[in-house]
Design goal:
Layout: E1 3-5, H1 15-21, E2 30-32, H2 42-45, H3 50-61, H4 67-77, E3 89-92, E4 95-99, H5 110-127, E5 131-136, H6 140-149, E6 155-162, H7 168-175, E7 182-188, H8 191-203, H9 205-210, E8 213-214, H10 221-242, E9 247-252, H11 257-267, E10 272-279, H12 284-291, E11 293-295, H13 315-322, H14 327-340, E12 342-344, H15 352-355, E13 357-361, H16 364-378, H17 384-396, E14 402-406, H18 414-421, H19 428-431, E15 441-444, H20 447-458
Parallel strand pairs: 4-14, 5-6, 5-8, 6-7, 7-15, 9-10, 9-14, 10-13
Antiparallel strand pairs: 1-2, 3-4, 11-12
Helix pairs in contact: 3-4, 3-10, 4-5, 5-6, 5-10, 6-7, 10-11, 16-17, 16-18
């Protein structure tokens, strides 16, 4: 399997090259040349454990790592999860909640980040190289990445987060990691500012090469690939349990990577009737799937901060597929959006890819009410991001079994939970962080300031 850029000006490359590089040299995103077809193998796959299924899926995308080595990496990646199923689907009312928060940092980002960290260490050792990760986070990506690579040889990580715009627990999970290879940057701005700085530095090919930059954000294909697995795992399980032939998912999303993995799972053969895209007040994606116009707005600060995003970095992969894998058209649309903050794709509104999606937003009041009502009626506590997915999912669902993706443990969002139910949630992992020593650099939302900081630490 080879990997190509959505912008078309990068030579096709191997999985290892694509994974180590992150963003393509031409500014595009790396995607596989083709999507594997597993539709005739679903019965067998439905009986596998999570690590076994991950190995099977990854084997189709990774052809430059020997199978025995790949199996070891996969088993290591999922060995620290706190639930024997890794990602169980729990019946809550008349829907299922796919719990993706049993990893080290209690967030769905662990599902991919734990494998990505194992891959990095393996590939760098094989190639005798070093990697300096530059990332941006609206919350959970940062802690998952930091915990994945902390203390690892040959790797440094520079993680930017918007100061004051993550939950206090999310910030503490990042800044309390004091390993010498970890650098936290609190940026005076929004997540979109962090993302813009990151992408601009990656587009500076000379800087990227000089300082051996790599990515852990979902601009890195490895992240999206790893997330495909839990759609297959949950979907096949629930279809077997219910006897239904098709399934639907509701996905809270801000950066489009999570639901994009669901789209790829459907293309691989999982019979998905509907992908329900749920946003908070930052609804650029919901508006796009309802109007086919992709247009930025002002970032709203909400109780679901990981979704407080206006520019979804993974949207380009979807766009590339929508436009028939035409890199020239993709570049034209993305350049228009970059210069104007708006692009009109109404000519593609009736495309079959668009028909798979339904979308809407849940505001703060509805999100809080959903947390409270689900707790009262089902004795099940949702985090605010998952509550967005549950609220919108129940509104837009069809007759098929509904799986709502639970993206984080509710104890990561104490203020939102207290506001909703009047009680403080707890988890022993997070309780142990209280009063921990922290280390973090405060910096302006300035490209040159970040460039200088990174260069200074690596020189």
């Amino acid at each position: 399997m080879r990997y190509i850029s959505t912008r078309g000006a990068t030579e096709p490359m191997s999985f290892i090259d694509a994974g180590l590089g992150g963003l393509a040299p031409d500014g595009g995103l790396m995607v596989p040349e083709s999507i594997p077809d597993l539709r005739h193998d679903l019965d067998r796959l439905s009986g596998l454990s999570y690590p076994e299924l991950a190995f099977e899926v990854f084997s189709h995308f990774i052809t430059d790592i020997p199978a025995d080595d790949l199996r070891v990496l996969v088993n290591r990646a999922y060995s620290d999860f706190r639930h024997p199923e890794t990602a169980p689907s729990v019946k809550v009312g008349d829907a299922y909640v796919l719990e993706l928060f049993h990893g080290p940092t209690l967030a769905f980002k662990d599902m991919a980040m734990q494998f990505l960290a194992q891959f990095f260490e393996y590939a760098l050792e094989k190639r005798d190289q070093v990697l300096n990760i530059l990332g941006s986070t609206s919350g959970d990506t940062g802690s998952a990445a930091i915990h994945g690579v902390r203390g690892k040889n040959r790797i440094n990580i520079f993680m930017m987060h918007p100061e004051g715009r993550t939950s206090p627990v999310q910030a503490l999970q990042m800044t309390s990691v004091l390993d010498e290879n970890v650098f936290n940057l609190a940026v005076d701005g929004t997540f979109d500012d962090c993302q813009r700085i990151m992408k601009t530095l990656f587009a500076d090919v000379a800087f990227k090469q000089q300082y051996h930059l790599g990515a852990v954000n979902s601009v890195n294909w490895v992240r999206v690939m790893a997330q495909i697995v839990y759609y297959l795992y949950s979907g096949l399980q629930v279809m077997k349990e219910t006897g239904e032939a098709t399934i639907q998912f509701s996905v809270p999303t801000g950066n489009f990577g999570n639901i994009l993995a669901g789209y790829y799972a459907s293309q691989m053969g999982l019979p998905v009737s509907r992908l329900i895209l749920a946003t908070n007040e930052n609804d650029i994606l919901a508006r796009f799937f309802n109007t086919a116009i992709y247009e930025t707005g002002q970032v709203a600060h909400t109780i679901s901060p990981s979704m407080d995003i206006q520019v979804a970095s993974n949207f380009e992969r979807f766009l590339f597929a929508l436009l028939g894998q035409d890199p020239e058209k993709t570049s034209e649309v993305m350049n228009t959006f970059a210069s104007t903050g708006r692009t009109d794709l109404s000519d593609w509104r009736d495309h079959e890819m668009m028909a798979l999606f339904r979308s809407d937003k849940a505001d703060t009041e509805e999100t809080s009410r959903t947390i409270r009502e689900t707790n009262d009626s089902e004795n099940y506590l949702l985090d605010p991001h998952t509550a967005v997915g549950v609220a919108v999912g129940n509104r837009l669902r069809n007759q098929d079994p509904l799986i709502c993706l639970a993206t984080a443990h509710p104890a990561k969002f104490v203020d939102a939970i207290v506001e909703a139910i009047g009680e403080e949630p707890h988890h022993p992992v997070l309780d142990a962080l209280q009063g921990a020593e922290t280390r973090c650099e405060h910096i302006g939302a300035d490209l040159e300031a970040v460039r200088t900081y990174v260069a200074g630490k690596l020189t």
